[in-house]
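User: Thanks for the earlier help. One more: Release factor glutamine methyltransferase. Can you show the sequence and predicted structure together?

Assistant: Of course, both are below.
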Amino acid sequence: MSTVRGLLGLAAGLDSDSAALDAEVLLCHCLDKPRSWLYTWPEKNVDPAIEARYRELMARRAAGHPVAHLTGRRDFWSLELEVTADTLIPRPDTETLVAWALELPLPDIARVADLGTGSGAIALALATERPRWAVTATDASAAALAVAGRNAERLCPGRVRLLEGSWFAPLAGERFDLVVSNPPYVEAGDRHLARGDVRFEPRSALAAGPEGLDDLSHIARNAPAYILPGGYLLLEHGCDQGEPVRALLRQAGFEAVNTRRDLGGLERITGGRRRAQ
């Protein structure tokens, strides 16, 4: 039988910037143990059935499959989310949007909409932090919405309303204090779409036209009809899209438009306030 230390050594066969961490996460997943256990018991023998499962997952990781898809889980904010190939894998940079939303001077019982919710990451983070907010999440993908529904049922049952439809389509006649979205923003021809984890994520959740601005433009243009006077719009975007997204918000009539940087210091979230009337 192989030891924990020996199995972790398989990380050397991974072409990944996070090879050692990937190996640890996958072995923990197979063993159902925390990472600290691996280093407490490095010489522990691993059951052959568990070893076989681990080697299978490592082979799939070596073929490029994302760790989140192999484990079915991804940490985001304070939550552990289920993720599948039907959803975008939540990234730490999106937590910048959540943090900004929680700082806004919103009513105690605010109405919030998360457009293109995917796994439900943003909507559920906000709902768990602000239990009195009325949070609605939309997505055009029924499969993604099913994942968000399972996450919502496990993490905050009854707290998030899930609606199927593209962007604002399911929200006719409604208005909100805050609209947030992490829409597709990658250029359709970007070579990075054929590399790394994104190869296994839904293309519809990544690419948005020749400049990556199609969905951002649609949301900004239509947002004023769904945001209450004095309400806010926050959008995640590419690190080189800050200037055009600020222009989109100003053209739509938003004021106090500015951009925040992500954990890597890159422009990532742009927001603005609808003029009070």
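User: Great, one quick takeaway?

Assistant: The chain has two domains: 4-63, 76-274.
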